[in-house]
Amino acid sequence: MRVAAAAAAGALRPTAATLLFSPPHQHRRLISLHRRGTQHLPFARRRRDSYSSTATVAAPNPKQEDAGGAGGEAEGKAARRRRARESPEGNFRHQLDMCSRNADLTTALRLYDAALSPDSPIPLSLHHYNCLLYLCSNAAASDPDSSADAAQRGFDIFARMEADGVQPNEATLTSVARLAAATRDPAMAFSVVRRMATAGIPPRLRSYGPALFAYCEAKDADGAQQVEAHMDASGVVPEEPELAALLRVNADKGRADEVYRLLHRTRTLVRQVSDTTAQVVEAWFRSDAASEAGVDKWDPRKVKEGVIKGGGGWHGQGWLGKGPWSVDRSEMDKDGTCQRCGERLVCIDIDPSETDNFANSLTELAIKRETRDDFLGFQSWLRRHGPFDAVIDAANVGLYNSKAFSFSQVNSVVNAIQRVTKSKKLPLIILHRNRVNGGNAKAPHNQKILESWRKAGALYATPPGSNDDWYWLYAAVSCRSLLVTNDEMRDHLFQLLGTSFFPRWKEKHQVRLTFSGRGPTLHLPPPYSIVIQESEDGSWHVPTTTGDDIEKPRQWICSTRKSSK
């Protein structure tokens, strides 16, 4: 089956490559030639598997692609929408959407063939083509038994799309790139991404995935490096799956300098690695190439200068030492000392100017999404009553392990954090106005708690319709204070921040908590940075997400030269 698939893929490549670079007016002739060899074979229905954003194209969204303009009266609009739904084009679209939802390529191709029938032809739109290409690329990437057939149909559909003069968008070309990758042709997948950039269509991370992963799977480190360089030039930042693939292919090729560079890039962009990436890193340090990489002698002054220049935790002077590495998992004690090698990790400082810039960015985002006067009013209040040593996300704390909000639970945390802060001042308590004025807030004992907070100038009630996340985050950042919350801050609001600063800030300022019969236990930020660290003697410590939990110690990769132990 693999031989047959490879042969089919080889037959496809000249046609697909020609489609990518030939003028659209030539495509009708290519279609007729291409379709002569197309067999309509049955396709297995793919299960609804989840895919990385770097490897898949989301199913086309009808609202995004065909949003119409306003105009006419409401009744007229409703009538037009009804007629559109009931038209052959609308019915075809609905059926394709159902196929896309159910990953049903067989039915989608049958509908497509029927739409091309001379007896009842249906004009195809961008959305129709994107649904079909999405389904073909998914089948080609996930089902080895029908991969070549699905790819062939996908290229055929793309050829007709271009011949019909339908302009592709990013989703279209990403599906085509996935088709190329499924035929083991990373160069073609990469050419599709370059075509995007040339056509003024900004590529996304998922657009680069097919070419990058295909090059890495083919052990073509140079090709993968070209894709990475193109990503950088386009302002597209790789995530952990892309970095892990690049690390693996360069480690397998013994390219020590590239592995060194990529480890530092992972340090900057990822900080802590998953177990899959950790295994790639461990395999590198155990390899012969890693043993041979490095120098016997180096200038300690240059290494020290590199550490100071980089802010601590790394020097960037290349591999130090020679010989085999000793590699194993380890844990850190409360002071950041490795329990395996005795190396003490450092706390990497944050530049105050970065904090100021981040606070300004928060303000700009907040006033776009909150009522401007409400948020500016909060900033004015904070200037009068602050600064605070700690800020409490009271909604998160009050609902911890409970369906009902508990003021007494919040108050126990208020008292606990007050005891550990330098000023012993009451922390700032951020709570929505509805919580302050309604529900169990009216109970006498809760009124007493609220009044004590108000008298201390420590309670701020966010206005109706607001998102209190903006308020407690801004307060904690601008006051350089601790932030008490178990919120992992991974939702859409925090993704808007789009900066490498936020994970570093969170690591040094977030206080998480647990409760027992004795009350709250505060888990303060560690006195060291949880990030890949390169020591001045050449050893490495790589934090993993294994044990990324309040109750379990984090696992670290500890890698030292055997000769230095």
UniProtKB/TrEMBL annotation:
Xref: Pfam families: PPR_long (PF17177), PRORP (PF16953)
Region (Disordered): 34-93
Principal EC category: hydrolase
Alphabetically ordered keywords of this record: Hydrolase, Magnesium, Manganese, Metal-binding, Mitochondrion, Nuclease, Repeat, Transit peptide, tRNA processing, Zinc
Keyword hit for Protein transport: no
Annotated ranges, domain PRORP: 332-558
Cofactor: Mg(2+)
Protein family according to the UniProt entry: Belongs to the PPR family. P subfamily.
Protein name: ribonuclease P
Organism, scientific name: Panicum hallii var. hallii
The organism's taxonomic lineage, starting at the top: Eukaryota, Viridiplantae, Streptophyta, Embryophyta, Tracheophyta
